[in-house]
């Protein structure tokens, strides 16, 4: 009887965890398995659905549209990630330093764009960039200069990166700020006694303390960056010649499925995007973990 | 004592003000330009008010557009956000509590899968979810938008951390000694202690629902079911088409004022609930 009771106690956890697990299986595990299964088939004109094993993945890896899209997304991340991290670090250190007048105003003001949905952010910036009633155009015309076409082939990706920088700096800033606030103040006093200046304190105390938060920010930047969809899909209306239907892998996948009904191939693109994301996150983790170990040694 | 009286720097404040202008300028621009007629939009400077103050006229036209469809978008967004936030608050507080305070078979594996799932991009799931929904026959329903937003692995992870930090195991043991049942212990002791964490998770879920674009775009056909994001994108596409027959007065002011109204609820929520989500953000980030 005693054993029976202990067994039941062991299962109590499942009563609490079960509801989440059920919904999670239905909305995450099953769709993933379904995508994986579906990606093994091809819808042939003659004969209907046929199993092709890795056939779709061979197609994915040699699809020039997808490779080009992946290249754009990587460029987007290469611009956006370092700038967001740098701006978030600098602003959080400034707010934490206690040397700012009205520091609360800066904290909330820089964070507010995070509360703006990406669709609205992309709409607004699209208009600001645009030549019709955009601020950028008016600024350059006011100076008597030709306005740059920010949605041209060369500038569209940096312009999208700017939207993302605008939206997410504040979120990362607050995470970093929380990390800085948890550093015991005595550490700074001890460092000051040892003759450390502001820069030395930032490098040797603040930055190492922020490493876990930086890692978290990098994770989410990689995960968010690879699925770049909302910005190009909104800006496509303004710049249809620059932003093609295969501009990013997510846009490509959407159009494959919705516009041309190639569900099996779209599923393979989805699985591929998932694998690229996991690879990206693991690379970040390995590189950063090694760096921070070196820094500690 | 020295830190409490740190000397304020005018230079640093000035530099930060430049940054602040960058972050607030688009919003100021949106507010100003929501008050303009389409004519003024094109003929007056972007950061000055127009010749006429058309804010209320624009709002009227927005809510009259296509039989008041904007009102439906607003109501849909509220529904999707509230249902998603409430549902995931229930699932994640129960699940997080279980991960933090119970040993159960399969827990390690479950935790590993959850952490792994944080890495799976939402748009990767959207396509198979759409195809599965069409097999079950629930595409183009509110359920197809709400259901996939309930089991958020990162929200569960955050709740597990909160529950571990804020509920002392001794308290649970003491309640068990007194003969309280597990459900009663959860509702009368644990739930109260994890409430601040729950506010953070709820707010993030609401933000995610407000931001949700890819999934509703793919699973919904009927524009009467759209959330704000999808609706505004469609409205914007029409405005840009330059179809004068569609709307002689122009649709741009409608898009702008529609965007403005769409952002007000979330901005207010973040401003009013600052105290709660800031501490939540800290706990989640420092722990990882």
TrEMBL record, chain A:
Question: Which CDD domains does this entry report, sorted A to Z?
Answer: TM_PBP2
According to its record, what are the GO cellular component terms?
plasma membrane
Identify the Gene3D superfamilies for this entry.
Answer: MetI-like
Q: Where in the cell is it found?
A: Cell membrane
- Domain ABC transmembrane type-1 stretches: 70-284
Domain of life of the native organism:
Bacteria
The residues that cross the membrane are: 12-34, 73-93, 105-128, 155-178, 209-229, 265-288
The protein's topology relative to the membrane is:
Multi-pass membrane protein
One of the protein's GO biological processes: transmembrane transport
- UniProt keyword annotations, A-Z: Cell membrane, Membrane, Sugar transport, Transmembrane, Transmembrane helix, Transport
What the entry lists under PROSITE patterns is as follows:
ABC_TM1 (PS50928)
User: Which InterPro entries does the protein's record reference?
Assistant: MetI-like, MetI-like_sf, UgpAE/MalFG_permease
Assigned protein family: Belongs to the binding-protein-dependent transport system permease family.
Q: Give the protein's recorded name.
A: Multiple sugar transport system permease protein
Species the sequence originates in: Herbiconiux flava
UniProtKB/TrEMBL annotation, chain B:
Is-annotated flag, keyword Membrane? yes
* GO terms (BP aspect): transmembrane transport
Principal localisation: membrane
Topology in the lipid bilayer is annotated as: Multi-pass membrane protein
Q: Where is the ABC transmembrane type-1 domain?
A: 74-273
Query: Would you tell me the Gene Ontology cellular component terms?
Result: plasma membrane
Cell location: Cell membrane
Q: Which UniProt keywords apply?
A: Cell membrane, Membrane, Sugar transport, Transmembrane, Transmembrane helix, Transport
Keyword NADP attributed: no
From the record, give the transmembrane residue ranges.
12-32, 78-99, 111-131, 143-164, 185-210, 251-273
Which PROSITE patterns does the UniProt entry name for this protein?
Answer: ABC_TM1
Q: What Pfam families does UniProt report for this protein, alphabetically?
A: BPD_transp_1 (PF00528)
Homology family: Belongs to the binding-protein-dependent transport system permease family.
Q: What is this protein called?
A: Multiple sugar transport system permease protein
This chain's source organism reads Herbiconiux flava
